[in-house]
Amino acid sequence: MTVMLNKQSQNKIAQRIETQDGRTLIYGYLTSFFLWAAGILFSLLACATLFVTIHYPHYTEGVEYKHGTTPLVIIGIAIILAIITTLKATGWLKKIDSKVSALIVSIYVGIAAISWAIMSNSFPDWDSKDLIVAASQLGHDYGDKWAPGAYMERFPFQTPYVVLIKILRYVFGQDQTYLAIELVNSMAAAATAFIVILYTGKIFNNEVANVSALLITLSWPIILYSTFAYGNLPAIPFALAALYFQQIAIEDRVFKYNIYAAFLITISIMLKSTMIVILMAMSIAWGVTAIRDNTKKSLAAIATTLLIYIVCTSGFNACVTHKYHVRLDNGLPKTTWIAMGLQRPQDPDVLNNSGGFNGYVWSWMNNYDPKQANRESLQSIHASIHDFTSNPLYAIRYFSHKEAWIWCDPTYESILNSNWSITADPHGKPMSSRPISPIAHSVYYGKIYKLTMFISDAMQTLTFAGVAFSLIKNRKTNINTIVSAIATTGFFLIYLLWEAKAQYAFPAALLPLPLAAAGCWGLASLIYNKIPAIIWSK
C-alpha cells in the first residue's frame, strides 16, 4: 500500500512539474513575441531618426524633412556615450545614490520648466485656449464651448482636465490660471524625472538608474512642454508611477501595489485618454504573468483595474453631469479620428503632412449628429482604403511620411506649441508676434534653438537605439520589465490609423527611458571593456 501511495505521489509531482514547464514555456514564447516586436520597432525608429529630422521652419505644422543631420546625430550620441562611459570608468555611477540623483534632477527639471514658462511669455491658443475658456464657462455662463455640437460636446474626454483647470482658476484666480497650469506642468515634469529614475532603479540597478538621470537631464522637451495647457504632461507621471507599482506588485508578489497602479493609471487616462494604451500593456503583463505563476492574483489585478477605471470615470462623468447639467455622452465616434488619420492633407501651406489634424472633426457644424458623423467617417475610411489598395506606392509614401512626422521630430512639437505663427482667433494675434526676451528669441530662432535640436536629435536616436539594444541583449527578461516598450509599440500601431502628430508620441517616447538607460549602460560597458588600456586602466 505504501509503495502504491508513493508511486501516486510521484506521478502527481511529475504532472505538476510537466504542467509548470508547459506554463513556463508559454510564458517564454509570449514574452519573446512582445520583446522582439518591440525590439524590431525600436530598431526601425532608431534608423529613421538617425537619417530623418523633422522641423517646422515657419512655426506652423507645415513640416520639413531634413536628411543631412546624420553626422551631427552621431557626434551627439558619441558625446553622451563618452560621458556615460567616463562616469562608469571613474566609478561615479556606483558611488552616487540614485535616489539622490532623482531628487537633484527632479529639482533641476522643475526649476528649469517654470523658468522657461516665465521666460517664454507665451499664452494659450488652439485647444489650450478652448480648454481654458471651457473651464471658465463651466458652472457659470455656458457659452460657445458648451453649446450643442460645440467643443465640449464633441470632445467630452477633455472634461477631467477642464475640471482641473477650473480648480486652478478658483485657487489662483482668473488672471493667473495659465500661470497655474504652467506650474502644474512644471511639477509634473519634475515628478516624471523623479519617477523615471526610481523606476529604472527598481527594474535594473543603481548604475543604470544614474544613467537614466543623465538621460532625463538631457530630455529638454519635458522642460519646454511646461507652456502647453493640455493633459499630456500631467498624465505622464501618473502613468509611470502605475508602471512602477505594477513592477513591485509582480516582482514582490504584493497585491496591494496592483491597486495603487490601478488608481494611478486611471488618473492618467482621465487626464489624457490615449493613456489607455498603457493600461492595455499593463493588462498584457498581468495576463502573461498569470500563465507563468498559475495564480488568480494577476487576473484579479486586471479585473480590479478595469473595475476601478470604469467606476472612477463613470462616477466622475455622472457627478459632473449632475452638478453642471452638461452632456458628456454625445461625443464624436472613434471612427472620425480614424477617418482623419487616413485622409490626405487638406491645407498644404499650414499642414502638409499625412494623417494629421485637418479640421475634419469640425464637420457637421449646423447639424451635429454622432450617428451621421459615424456614417460619413466610415465612408471616408473606405475611400482612403480604396486609394491605398489601388495605389500601393501612394500608400507607402503616405504612411512613411505620417510616421516620420510622428516619430522623427526630436522636440515633439514642444517648441512649436509655444510659438505658433498662426492663430485660431480671427481677431487675435499669433503667439510669435508677442514680445519675447533675448533668451526666448534664441530658443525659437537662434543658437539655443540649434543647441536644442542638436541635443534632442541625438537623444531621440540614442533613446530608441538604447531600448532596442536593451531588449535584444536581455532576451530572457520578464515581461513586467518591458511593459513600457509594449505600450510604445501599441501607440505606434494605433497611430498608424489614428489622427496623430509628434506631440502625441512624446509620452510614448518617454515611457521606455529606463530601458534606454539600460541599453546605454550596456553600450558604455562594451566601450569600457574594449578600450581600457587607451583611456583608463581597470
Automatic annotation (TrEMBL):
Record-annotated Glycosyltransferase RgtA/B/C/D-like domain positions: 164-311
InterPro entries: RgtA/B/C-like
Keyword annotations from UniProtKB, A to Z: Membrane, Transmembrane, Transmembrane helix
One Pfam family this sequence matches: PMT_2
Positions of transmembrane segments: 26-52, 72-93, 100-119, 155-172, 179-200, 220-245, 257-286, 298-320, 479-498, 504-528
Protein name: Glycosyltransferase RgtA/B/C/D-like domain-containing protein
